[in-house]
Specification:
Radius of gyration: 25 Å
Distance between the termini: 17 Å
Structural class: mainly alpha
Largest sheet: 3 strands, mixed
Helix content: 55-70%
């Protein structure tokens, strides 16, 4: 009845060797990858923008079934993206010096803040590898979700700073110089951020990390704000100098507005929300286990980028040993169906 995702020392046959279907071979009579409890627009401009900027992992817990491999992938994504963003920030800082653009300064500040958010994520992934203790009996996976909260705070703070700088520029105007350099800086910022966004989101979705996906979405937002800097530079070239602080203020406001999607995503993880489709898949795997007469009380929750869960199943077994064996097989079927499950405990009861 234990549920750890490591190899089990028991001597009984693995459920994959029974005469019933292997979990991977059974017919999925439900559309599990796309049954989400959250409604969002599909198709059209609104759906495109939603998918582009609102972080949602779809709880696709299928691609990486090894906790250590997932953590290593997360750490690598964090390190690589951090150094790319720091390089982008330094380049933009040079252009701020030459142009005096407050819009570019706002974008640079936010890029630097986004690079810094990699540090708590890095720490969280390392902490998540630690074994459970008597005090932290579920392990340290929650550190990743706490890092997600820190990301929200840092990004919100950067938006406030950027907005303050833009307002100050309205009060104390200063001409923008070398507007063409400003355009180059905006393009550099967009390219760096979009590369980081693609990388973070891809890895985050692959390992099931809401925090890493959220950080990738922030990088994508930064790329869009960098393009906004280009618009401000075009306004200056056309003889409208106020375009620069206006764009800077719009950047700050847009960051705060779009940050709400990230707050909901991280908050859902902290409140133990999961995609109902995952629960259905777990139930389906349990029902297909030989000896299981009924499935009751299936529970799942995320701990960082790994799943923990339990279930109660009714069996027709006449002995405790047989019931325990059926429960063990049922737990292994769930782990075969949901690769990101680290621990799944099945408790047998009489049918």
């Amino acid at each position: 009845m234990h549920g750890h995702g490591t190899a089990h020392p028991h001597d009984h046959d693995n459920p994959h060797d029974h005469d019933h279907d292997q979990p991977h071979d059974h017919d999925h009579d439900h559309d599990h990858p796309h049954d989400h409890d959250h409604d969002h627009p599909h198709g059209g401009v609104r759906g495109f923008l939603y998918d582009l900027f609102v972080p949602h992992t779809h709880d696709a817990a299928d691609a990486v079934d090894d906790a250590l491999e997932a953590s290593r992938a997360g750490v690598t994504a964090v390190k690589v993206s951090m150094f790319v963003l720091l390089g982008t920030t330094l380049l933009q800082l040079l252009f701020v010096w030459f142009t005096g653009s407050v819009a570019l300064l706002a974008d640079t500040i936010h890029n630097f803040a986004d690079a810094l958010t990699a540090v708590p994520l890095w720490i969280a992934f390392v902490l998540g590898r630690r074994a459970a203790t008597r005090r932290h009996t579920f392990g340290y996976g929650r550190a990743e979700d706490l890092a997600g909260l820190f990301i929200v705070f840092v990004v919100a703070l950067s938006a406030v700073i950027a907005g303050w700088e833009a307002i100050d520029r309205f009060i104390h105007p200063r001409p923008v110089e070398n507007a063409w350099w400003l355009i180059v800086a905006g393009v550099i910022g967009f390219a760096g951020n979009e590369l980081v966004a693609i990388y973070r989101i891809r890895v985050g979705r692959r390992i099931g990390s809401a925090a890493l996906v959220a950080d990738g979405m922030h990088a994508r937002l930064d790329g869009v704000t960098s393009l906004s800097v280009v618009l401000g530079a075009v306004g200056v070239l056309l003889g409208f100098p106020l375009a620069d602080p206006i764009i800077g203020l719009l950047i700050a406001v847009s960051i705060l507005v779009l940050l709400w999607g990230t707050v909901k995503s991280i908050g859902a993880r902290l409140m133990d929300a999961v995609d109902p489709g995952l629960v259905e898949r777990a139930e389906h795997a349990l029902q297909r286990t030989e000896g299981v007469a009924a499935v009751r009380d299936v529970r799942l929750r995320w701990s960082g980028h790994r799943l923990l869960g339990s279930a109660v199943v009714a069996t027709g077994a006449v002995s405790l040993a047989d019931a325990s064996l059926i429960a063990e097989h049922a737990a292994e079927y769930v782990r075969a169906e949901l690769h990101s499950v680290d621990d799944f405990v099945v408790t047998p009861t009489p049918a």
